[in-house]
Amino acid sequence: MSKAIRIYETGGPEVLKLEDVDVGEPGPGQARVRHTSIAVNFIDIYFRTGLYPLPRPNGLGSDAVGVVEAVGPGVTDIRVGDRVGYLIGPQGSYSQVRVMPAEVLIPLPDGVSDRTASTLMMKGMTAQYLFRQVYPLKGGETILYHAAAGGVGLIACQWARALGVTMIGTVSSDEKAEIAKANGCTHTIVTTRENIAERVRELTDGKGVPVVYDSVGKDTLMASLDSLSPRGTLVSNGTSSGPVVIDSMLLAAKGSLWMTRPAMMHYIQPRAHMLSMAEELFGHVLAGNIVSEPRQSFALADAADAHRALESRKTTGATVLVP
């Protein structure tokens, strides 16, 4: 038996239930993984609250790292004892042990600890596809990035610095501003006392930026649009403050702007591409360009407390569960 978080209804953190589950043996094309560190992401809250549909009852959680305990028939590139991580596949990473499709498992390189890897599977790969695929950054650009001190944000700060990109990051406090700057964010905007669009125009001599990466959503939509240069791109990659609703005529009125709502699943497949993304990410880690460790840790049994902390916006960087 293994301990796992299950949900039977949508709602607040209290709907997360710790239960005993029977894991069983892996079938064809599967592997059984014993987790060592489990990531907590804002997308988990979307599933918990019902913003993203999820059959119930179900497990929760998108990504984790661990050690392969057993493999099923037909699995050739993953072996017992391998250290692996994953970020796609069935929901259910909030667990001690689980059976997974072997094709979604990513081998972890020596030199990258389990704790570090658990902060990078979803968050680091998100930074990769945002910066290298959705709106590919070449170096020399000035960008606006919302929630720069968040889990993805701190990795994005470091990646932008490695690429030679000038990053303007929004944060909610002076403390978070210092953390973002320490990780490579060039300029910070404290949203509780500064006007985002006005500050961006000041920092860019009135030109605006060619791209805004906005994971906040409703509360920052207008500021994001007003920060863009003509024909600029709004990458709406999250809705932590609420969904984005926009009239396409507004995009025309504000400078013939582009807008995209990317999803990881459309940028990470096939498997060879996923492994290539991970290789680039871990290459930055091994080179010392990206340093990432959990800033908040909770026991698996305290997953509800982890969600409360994340929703309060009082966390910085990555949050993990320890099984």
Describe this structure in words.
The model has no long low-confidence stretch (mean pLDDT 95). The chain folds into two domains: 2-119 and 294-322, Quinone Oxidoreductase, Chain A, domain 1; 123-260, Rossmann fold (3-Layer(aba) Sandwich), CATH 3.40.50.720. With 323 residues, it is α/β, with parallel strands linked by helices. β9, α4 and β10 form a beta-alpha-beta unit. Helix content is 30%, strand content 27%. The chain has eleven helices and 16 strands. The protein has helices at 42-49, 114-118, 122-134, 151-163, 174-182, 196-203, 221-227, 248-253, 265-268, 271-286, 303-311, and strands at residues 2-7, 17-21, 30-40, 58-59, 64-71, 83-86, 97-101, 106-107, 142-145, 166-171, 187-190, 209-214, 228-236, 258-260, 294-299, 318-322. α3 (122-134) packs across α10 (271-286) and α6 packs parallel to α7 (221-227). The strands form three sheets. Strands 3, 5, 6, 7, 8, 15 and 16 form a seven-stranded mixed beta sheet that branches. It has a six-stranded parallel beta sheet with strand order 11-10-9-12-13-14, with helices on both faces. It holds the Pfam family ADH_zinc_N. This is Quinone oxidoreductase.
